[in-house]
Amino acid sequence: MRAFRSGAAATAAPRATPPIRLEFAQKAFILDGDGRLLLVRKSATDPHHPGRWEVPGGRLEVADDLDLDDHIRREVWEEVGLKIDPGPPFHLWQWFMTDAPPGSGDRAGQVRVVATARLCRPVTTQVSVEHQTADDHLDEPAWVPLPELGGYELIPSLRPVVRAFLRLYPEHR
């Protein structure tokens, strides 16, 4: 407990800190029948990780996604044009990002993204980028054999998730 003395100098007013908004995301680890994982490359216009690789997925649209399975199906369809069968989650992690576009100079809050990685089975395997929007900032998808994942420059926050995924498939390392 903090003690106050009478006659003490006035303290400065508390500094206003930008708010932190909480969001939820899911990432789909889609493994095909040939032991390949679907990765997607961030475009050169991506404000955070241009040219790096990740797996399909994104943030929950609270008002529109019916449930978590609907959410991950929508994200995968929009980003890579696949229909999937969502499976169980295998990893939970978080990251922080600014609420303002990089380089804008805006003093915006932060976004704390809590995410889960899910094992997903592809129902279709022909990828398509025709459903993407410009704010997806995605380029090419690629089916990558698991032993070759180390040769791809992944988004830093995804690296420990990929390691957790590979522990589930030791026969492919």
How does this model look, in words?
This protein is mostly beta strands. Helix content is 13%, strand content 34%. A 4-stranded mixed β-sheet has the order 4-1-6-5, with helices on both faces. A 3-stranded antiparallel β-sheet has the order 3-2-7, with no helix packed on it. It is globular.
β-strand amount = 25-35%
Percent in helix: 10-25%
Total helices: the number is: 2
User: Which structural class fits the helix and strand makeup?
Assistant: mainly beta
- The outline comes out as globular
Layout: helices, strands, pairs:
Elements: E1 20-30, E2 36-42, E3 53-54, E4 57-59, H1 68-80, E5 84-98, E6 110-122, E7 138-145, H2 159-167
Parallel strand pairs: 1-6
Antiparallel strand pairs: 1-4, 2-3, 2-7, 5-6
Question: Could you give a quick summary of the protein structure above?
Answer:
By secondary structure, the protein is mostly beta strands. It has helices at residues 68-80, 159-167; strands at 20-30, 36-42, 53-54, 57-59, 84-98, 110-122, 138-145. It has a four-stranded mixed β-sheet with strand order 4-1-6-5, with helices on both faces. Strands 3-2-7 form a three-stranded antiparallel β-sheet, with no helix packed on it.
